[in-house]
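User: Design a sequence. Structure:
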């Protein structure tokens, strides 16, 4: 069952009203107005995307940013596109999600012992946020890390998600390192009670080319389960 408390709700209200990055505001709203043919009849969310999941989670998944016609359309992280389907199939197989697909905010998806967030809350042009945009969005991630008191395993999807998860925990004094841990699919790093696992992002660029396969993604969450022990 997905559990949250008022502090999470207050944070998400701050997220969805954010307009700090002019380039991203223009892009997300342009996409929401112009749409694409296959979604022409739908109303796009067109705002920053709130994170979601179990507020008592021990597993935190950190991605890059919403997709222009995925999360920016549906209003939920990893929802409405193939990247999300890949992720939720893997989470379902690992026991963290009650269903394998993520279509829209009313589809009944629930996460157990898992919380999903992203480095950036708005869809960036060409999926390439600027360092300044990442910096402006970081306070939201830091607040979530602070609220998610039970997290023991962090999965970073893609180099940006992995790196910024590490930076966030270091900034809050939860972990310490002098050299940024190297990103490689399946790479695992332990810092006391916290474990960080790197994964290729389940983008179509990776899944269509075979750079990331379903067994590879399953192995990431199998390792997360092993680190968490009995669930």
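Assistant: Done.
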């Amino acid at each position: 069952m997905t559990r949250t408390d008022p502090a999470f709700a207050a944070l998400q209200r701050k997220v969805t009203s954010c307009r700090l990055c002019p380039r991203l505001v223009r892009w997300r709203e342009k996409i929401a107005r112009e749409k694409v043919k296959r979604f022409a009849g739908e109303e796009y969310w067109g705002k920053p995307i709130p994170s979601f999941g179990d507020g008592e989670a021990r597993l935190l998944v950190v991605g890059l940013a919403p997709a222009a016609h995925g999360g920016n359309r549906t209003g939920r992280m990893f929802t409405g596109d193939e990247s999300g389907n890949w992720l939720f199939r893997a989470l379902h197989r690992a026991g963290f999600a009650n269903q394998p697909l993520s279509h829209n905010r009313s589809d009944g998806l629930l996460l157990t012992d898992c919380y999903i967030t992203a480095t950036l809350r708005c869809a960036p042009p060409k999926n390439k946020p600027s360092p300044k945009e990442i910096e402006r969005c970081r306070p939201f991630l830091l607040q979530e890390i602070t609220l998610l008191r039970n997290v023991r395993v962090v999965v970073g999807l893609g180099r940006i998600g992995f790196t910024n998860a590490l930076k966030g925990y270091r900034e809050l004094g939860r972990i310490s390192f002098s050299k940024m841990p190297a990103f490689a699919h399946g790479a695992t790093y332990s810092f006391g009670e916290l474990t960080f696992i790197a994964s290729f992002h389940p983008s179509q660029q990776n899944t269509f080319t075979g750079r990331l396969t379903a067994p590879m993604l399953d192995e990431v969450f199998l390792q997360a389960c092993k680190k968490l022990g009995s669930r």
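The helical segments are 6-16, 22-34, 71-74, 82-93, 131-147, 158-171, 204-207, 214-228. The two ends are 13 Å apart (CA to CA).
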